[in-house]
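Job type: complex structure
Entries:
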Amino acid sequence: MSLKEKKINDFVVRFANVNGTGSASANYLFCKAIFRMGIPVTPKNIFPSNIQGLPTWYEVRVSEKGYLGRREGIDLMVAVNPQSFAADVASVRSGGYFLYDNSKKLHAEYVREDIHYIGMPLMEMCNEAFTDPRQRQLFKNIIYVGALSALLNIDFSVYESLLHEQFKGKEKLIEPNIKALQMGVDYVQKNFKYPLEFYVEKRDLIGDNIMIDGNSACGLGAIYAGATVAAWYPITPSTSVVEAFMDYADEYRTDKVTGKRNVAIIQAEDELAAIGMVIGANWNGARAFTATSGPGLSLMNEFLGLAYFAEIPTVLIDVQRSGPSTGMPTRTQQSDVLEAAYASHGDTKHVLLFPSTPKECFEMTSDAFDLAEQLQTPVILMTDLDLGMNDHVSKPFEWDVNKEYKRGKVLSAKQLEKMEKFGRYLDTDGDGITYRTYPGTHPSKGSFFTRGTSRDEYAVYTESSDAYKRNMDRLIRKWETTKEYVNAPDLYQTKNQSKIGLLFFGTSQFSSEEAMDIMKTQNILVDAIRIKAFPFNRDVEDFINEHDQIFVIEQNRDAQLKSLLMIELGVNADKLFSVLNYDGMPITADHITSQITSQLSLPKN
Amino acid sequence: MTYIRPKFRHPELPKNKLGYTINYYEGALSTLCAGCGHDSISAGIVQAAYEMNIQPHKLAKLSGIGCSSKTPAYFLSNSHGFNSVHGRMPSVATGANMANRDLIYFGVSGDGDSASIGMGQFVHVVRRNLNMVYIVMNNGCYGLTKGQDSATADRGSKNKSGNTNLFQAIDLASLAIELGATFVAQSFSGDKTQLVPLIKAAMNHPGFAFINVISPCVTFNNNVGSTKSYDFVREHIEATSTMDFVPEMSEIKTNYEQGTNKMVKLHDGTFLELHKLSEDWDPLNRLSAMNAVHNARVKNEILTGLLFLDPDSEDLHAMIETSHIPLNTLTEKELCPGPDILKAINADLR
């Protein structure tokens, strides 16, 4: 593609900053402005596990076609952090632009012949215009955001209205921000040719979509689903799930007069305690949840086994990050799939849900509570850092006014009164799901002993092999029932048109869809399915049976979902081909396309 | 195995205010070793609940893992029970309590369960002042795995195999006082007269009520040289006081010498009547309580009775300002903000 060719609404800008310098809100302003101009946009925050002083990046992809996955190849690098200059210069695509602070001369080693340089004396400009040292630091960011308005044709009035919204109640901050933005615009207009050959043009492609991160959506989902107890231990990248829940609880669960709250949020001493509290609360009839990431999930294994075996509803939101061990705590991955599916010792299986968008985070969090209570078992929402912590363009949240919580098989005092004898683990309906009672329901009927040890149908401890086996077999009957309850997959075609199928889940959705479009241009036609839950239901099995070659796209090294398909559905390994990404960065369409096309050319045997 | 206790009882057993006889408060037949201290504590719990006119279904009993943690099966069979995982009962109790503040939470743990694997959870449940009774049946050894030393075994104490414990003991009672517990007591499974009123007062306490009960393991730690044997404990016991829990302030009987009695008014107008035996000890003063425990330890004595009480205790619900209505009774109506608010939330995200 010729560089002189104009590219409208199709480029990637990356900001290279030092963390703790206020760059996040400036960069967000840039991203939100493009969203407000009606153009699909995807920001990715690539940040260190650190509070101040280390390199951090913010990457914004603008895509008229609505591709919301990440894309390699940076068109414009805004480099404000000399620490990372070497890598930043190297990552600009040939013919791209490198905007930097030329208050100090750029070192010769950072000069590439094949890219353009836009030098702006950001520091000098700031020092001249502002006296307060903190303002000097903050407005450096705002000046380059202003410069981008000219370079990329961003409507200045959109910036202004965003600032007015942001500083509602702190109006005196608006004026200096606008001044800094204008300084950036003026400098570009005076010194450079603008706009660049790639820029934005107003569109109406956003419609009624919203922009929010997945963690906030999960927090809101828990509020709507009626969660009253949350117990958690801080861990990146899940912390903001509970923080969002707290914020929404302040707003929607707090009596404005008395200050009394319809919610109990406990910061636990560790993840063991967090999940223990969730189990205790659910046992006692409240909807309770926790949010964690891989290391926390490892610690929660023991309790998950108890919840599975004692059949206590449990909702866990796992915002996955790069493992193993502490791994890369601020990078994304889908690498907890197997651990979550079979968490804890002994024979266990857990229900997993895989959201792809904030809207699904909201809905599936709510689904998780219904499923956990209906099935009386843990349900783990498998989101990831990319979905959880980055803003996403999403369909708006919806809630049916008539929606009722599905509380499952819980006996009331009246029902107990009519019963001869209550058996907690008696499968009277034949679906493997038995009836439970909350403590305190009836004076003399319905009490039982909850335990992680073997017991009979009446919850009485037993070491009888028969009783133990009957119970384990009933749990498998319940697992079969579960397949009818969990979210069905999304099929991309009503009728199959290819022998090749793509299978993906979670945040691989956007890049997978884009890859399908790319392959279409190469005359490679494929069918596709997006999995939303484990256990796999019939549709998943059918899709696999109906295709000769299935590409399983996932963001981990060991092809964990592929393993799960083989274990649970007995799929022949020969027909499953892996497309893997595990460098901690969100998967890209180019990556998917190249892995598929290279394996397509392999002779099949 | 759990055996069902025969239902037959003497027809003229006295009834409490609710019309229940004491056997209504019993559980399944214990499968612990004959003579186990834990069974005496279970009997104390049964008696306290009966005398306190507790509705058994309004009480939830929780435990971890170990011999002590089996005992909730042996009392209050009309209560829901939860035998959780090793050392993690406090967290389960915390969640349960958050869900429904109207039940009595009765936790039973052991020295392994609380002082080793569950030390973290024990410490934090104290910090949070969760409204519950927390009894540790403390025998200084791991009974269920055949007698290994536990973290509360005294240094120099000999176990059944003749090995001397080399390590310092963790003193749970003084630890609880140090951590800010609002009710701390210590007792002996062989002293039901002292234990029953302590359990009653603990059930009435609005906050974390901790009772460390020395409960000899007859099978693995009742030998000569052990400091948790019946003989040793009986010889070294020293009580802070004798006490009565006075549910209604009608009449105070004082059969003791003037000046040694102390009436402690509790949050709800009930009283604890303490007949002090120990001079330099004020149960309402944390420092004094710590000193008393420490001095007793120096003298190689086991101080029992109420050690410390904060009558102004504020439990976790009060601290985090949860609604007075149990959270588990709330429905969509109270909990779900509904579609109109969601529309406004969506609008803010554009």
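Summary: The longest helix of chain B spans residues 37-51. DSSP finds twelve helices and 13 strands in chain B.
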